[in-house]
Amino acid sequence: MKPLSLSGWFAALLTAATGIIPLTGCETVSHDHSAATRPAVATDVDPSHADPDYWYAQTPALSVGDVRFDPLWDSAQRVSQDYLFQIDRRDQREGLLTTVPMVSPQWFEPWRRELQNTPDVVASSVATVRRTIQWRFRRVSNGWAVTPKVLIERQALTEERVSGVLSRAYFKRDPTDQIYGTRETDQNIRLPDSYWYPIGRDFQFEELLIQKMHRQLDAVAMR
Question: H-helix or E-strand containing 89?
Answer without folding.
Answer: strand 87-91
